[in-house]
Write the structure tokens for this entry.
Amino acid sequence: YKRQSMTLILRISMNFLTACCIALAFLSSLARCIEFVHHDYAAMYDLMSMYAEAYPHITRLYSVGRSVEGRELLVMEISDDPGRHEPGEPEFKYVGNMHGNEVTGRETLLYLIQYLCESYASNQTISELVDSTRIHIMPSMNPDGWEIADEGDYVGVKGRYNSNGVDLNRNFPDRFGLNPVKRAPETLAIMQWLEEYPFVLSANLHNGALVANYPYDSNVNDQSVYTASPDDDIFRQLVLTYSFAHPTMHLGLPCYEGDSEFKDGITNGAEWYSVIGGMQDYNYENSNCYEITIEQFCQKYPETHKLEGIWHENKDALLFFMQEVHGGVKGFVRSARTDCPLSGSRISVSDRDHDIFTAVDGDYWRLLSPGTYTIQASADGYETLEAMVEVCADSPAIVIHFKLVNTTVEDTSTCVIDEATTSIPSLYTNCVTNAATTSTPSLYTTDAAIISLCGLLLLQFYQLCF
């Protein structure tokens, strides 16, 4: 009789625990429910404000300026310390809806904001990404154009331009001085934004094709020919990351009969068609930021019922691309005597005609594809230092700090003196010999923690009873 009673109690208890776990998972999924609808300006503002208020410990809502008609160019910052640049932490940005009638970037970025906020406490991969990256998300660069665009538009142009009829992706200064046009307020806002934040990596989201596009977007003759940047290998690595994380983009299929096909779902911008005054080239030439352009969906303004599928097709690609900000080489450049940061120091890479510059804290991030390089740090009035580095695939950024010796004027800075040596090892590397192969962690299993906890509870209860 005692054994039967114990068995009955055990069954009831296990059923109760199971029901509790199911209920927890259900409630968790409800909390992360995304409403797949098109958001006008008011709805977008309300949604972003709601998440900023609900998650103040990881978010900050701000504006970089206003559109022609006075709508705010809203940005959601997501970070474990919102509102400040953490020395050594890279900054990343997404920009959507640059062309007002190309809308999936606007919606997928709103969904991404919701997903990152809701998953932060339960998904370790998302937590680590947010804790190690300062993320900036601008769902709409052209809110005025969106307001007049038509749902269902496939290849049209209504709403493409801003309220003054300006194509914002033809409005930036170009590297040849061929685009001396008046800058739109939206363009000026982006240019100022790039000056204020030390962005490392970015993507600009569009519609009208299914391809990942990389610099250069133009050439001096404005012709449709392959025009490689000094970091062509890095850009190819970046676009392939997005393309192969998307279920179909990497197949390179045309959107319709007679449309372009793209090997591996990627293209050099200028080879596809030349764009004078584009934003991705401006980022690369005028800041430390490496930007690519993603064409997320063949249709420019898809109907509401297609949004959920578009989100699921692009979610992993958006997340994996963000993680690319943590590759290459990073570190600080400081004074050898005082340890003060040397902002504006030049970071050069051997045989590569593209330098970057340290941020206000002396920190830098230099994206590199796998290979062996000589990295050089220099600043006016200081000796130049070099380091040899070996970068391996799928490895975190190599940390190289440079301590530069002043050679001209008396250094009267009052930072804490650091007695660390200025010598540089013969080779830095992030390669691991004979490392066991590990699987890529899931970026989207939001209920994994709940399921694991429930399983542990059931196992412990069973062991206690027997």
